[in-house]
Write a structure and sequence with these properties.
Rossmann fold; elongated; Pantoate_ligase; Rossmann-like_a/b/a_fold; two-stranded antiparallel sheet; 9% strand; mainly alpha; Pantoate_ligase_C
């Protein structure tokens, strides 16, 4: 009897939470809730070229965290900016979950594993494995005090070989 009541309540709650063709809404009969993250987490990098992207990330991730009640969430460090946005939103909203960054998994040539590589042309696929080493070398040069202009010039010339 108690199990049947719990199932009915869950079904009723689900029905209340869905409307407008199954879209989740922020309140019964209302527009969906969308979060706007603090800009500091997404300034620059790819956030500058993808307006609204991290608002979507913040909204979806927050809903997922609140609905699952998970204690831990794992994010790849390959998407560093997204990881930073998620960590910031968890702090800002006091969501009780630990965000754990995982190192980027790389192929034998050094290129990060990613489903997005299917979008690369054959020429880009040949160049892409060189990028991690070029970036690591540029970081070492800059850290050792080399001028930015010289570092960029050397990095660009190395990438074309």
């Amino acid at each position: 009897m108690l199990l049947a009541l719990a199932r009915r309540r869950i079904a009723e709650r689900h029905q209340q939470r869905t409307s407008h063709g199954g879209a989740r809404t922020g309140r019964p009969g209302g527009e969906p809730v969308r979060l706007r993250h603090r800009q500091t987490a997404s300034d620059g990098l790819c956030g500058a070229f993808r307006p609204g992207h991290f608002d979507g990330v913040a909204t979806v991730v927050t809903k997922l965290f609140l609905q699952t009640g998970a204690d831990l969430a794992f994010f790849g460090e390959k998407d560093f900016q997204q990881l930073h946005v998620v960590r910031q939103l968890v702090r800002d909203l006091d969501i009780q979950i630990e965000i754990i960054g995982n190192p980027t998994v790389r192929e034998s040539g050094g290129l990060a594993m990613s489903s997005r590589k299917i979008r690369l042309s054959s020429a880009e696929r040949r160049t892409a494995p060189k990028l991690p080493e070029i970036l690591f070398q540029a970081a070492r040069r800059l850290t050792s005090g080399e001028l930015v202009e010289r570092t960029l010039r050397l990095s660009i010339s190395r990438s074309s070989h």
